[in-house]
Structures are given as structure tokens and as C-alpha cells.
Amino acid sequence: MSFGLRSAEFAQLRLVGVSRRQVLRATGLDIPLALPWGALAAVVVGCVAVLLTTSVLASAVVVRGVEPP
User: Per-domain residue ranges for the chain?
Assistant: First the structure.
């Protein structure tokens, strides 16, 4: 573990009953990941949808022989 603690220090904390989550919280590394991953997935899906739509519209314009503005 590289949370600013050596593995021996971490092992000692675990021996006295300190949970891994408590160690992470104390070192500022306890980040709830459920919300950020869901939001990131929504942004990625949205960007892919926009890119695909733009690509399809651009190819339709080129096929018809109309120059885009």
C-alpha cells in the first residue's frame, strides 16, 4: 500500500482494529466511486452519440453532393 504508510505501519494499524476504510479516510484517499463512474459513463455515452450523429449527417451531406457550409 502506498498511502503514505509503509506496509509495516499499515499492518500495525490493522492489528489494533483500524479498518482499511478508516485508514483511507484519515489519509484523504476515501473517494466514493459509485457516483463518479456513473456520471463518467453517461458523459461517454453522450459524446459517442453526438459523434455518431455528426458522422452520419456529414456522410449524408457528402453523398448528396452538397457542400457543407
Answer: 1-31, 32-69
The distance from CA 66 to its chain's CA centroid, rounded to whole angstroms, is: 40
Please provide residue 67's backbone torsions phi and psi, each rounded to the nearest 5 degrees: -75, 135
Please choose, from the candidates 66, 58, 2, the residue with its C-alpha nearest in 3D space to the C-alpha of residue 29. 2
Task: Give 19-35 pLDDT, tens digit per residue.
Answer: 777 777 777 666 665 56
Q: Give tens-digit pLDDT for 35-58.
A: 677 788 899 999 999 999 998 888
- Integer angstrom CA distances of residue 21 from 2, 38, 44, 57: 14, 22, 29, 49
